[in-house]
């Protein structure tokens, strides 16, 4: 009887265990699913407030998807931690009804110290609260690792400051730990993930083999424009966004020219045994960045990796050929180079490149003007909230009370100033969408006159 009872109990226990829900792993976000009218919010700290990597990603969207009007909102504030982002979340993030929210926080949360468990616990707790709020507003978060802290750049500065030698030595490793947790959190929750820390560190290591003093981050915390190009490229790569602008292929066979194209429409194809001409309407423009970003373009090989615009011509006799667009010569190439594929995105004389450069300059003006003005308004808001919390903790501190009173004086009219900055940014973006529309171009490939 006892044996039967034991067997029955074990059997029922097995059934109960089988009925318990099994752990079902979730797939991280593979790529962005974007449609006209969608909003992306770039949430972050001073590195986002710099309006550089966000600007370069905007340049990508403006040139790669000229027919798609996305709403791109920078929500970076200098000094922000996850705690600060929570305080402005409803007005600065949720109010824009985002589809995706990229999150670049952690640099300030780690308190510029070696790893401290209580500090990380506070950070991870606030970040999880932030992710819950992003989910509650109907958006998907894209977690991004904190960027690199450059200890060598810090050591090359004048001695002193608030960081001791131990903190300088270990803070980059602390940020790596935070980033590993973010990667695992993104995987567990099925969110997007971008590794910023790895590419910045790897590029720095590579370049220091040639120049030991090389840095992307002169003040040790805030990357310069080239570093922000590396960050923007990491976003395009890790979010699996399209890397091809267009591919146009022409082949001479049996005295007849034929063509195939991706992301372009070819018309009016005409040719002879030693040359051809055609009209092309491409769907996009090359990804071109402002002049101060060009060192980063070279470090990332950005054009070849993320902005391929290739013209391939097979069947021409051996020799050198002029390549003209709209009647102006843009380059010369051998028949072998044309057959291998000519990278149009590298031709600064090409009208497509020049058009994309105009887009980049307009967007630079947009970011350095109204977008920066908008972000500076939120600096005042963040300072106000911080001082309010300090006064709550120390109600007898008269100096803190005075600082709070001074901060309160900056707040009247903030809503109107925010709206004015947004309207000014919108006006420049309207000009961008007049400038970024693809145009027909007439190509001619002819042998160089002897």
TrEMBL record:
GO terms for molecular function: hydrolase activity. It holds the Pfam family Lipase_GDSL_2. Its EC number is 3.1.-.-. Keywords: Hydrolase, Signal. It is an enzyme of class 3 (hydrolase). Residues 1-18 form the signal peptide. Residues 394-415 have a biased composition (Basic and acidic residues). Residues 42-228 form the SGNH hydrolase-type esterase domain. Residues 392-415 are annotated as: Disordered. CDD domains: SGNH_hydrolase_like_2. InterPro entries: Ester_Hydrolysis_Enzymes, SGNH_hydro, SGNH_hydro_sf. It comes from the Bacteria. This is SGNH/GDSL hydrolase family protein.
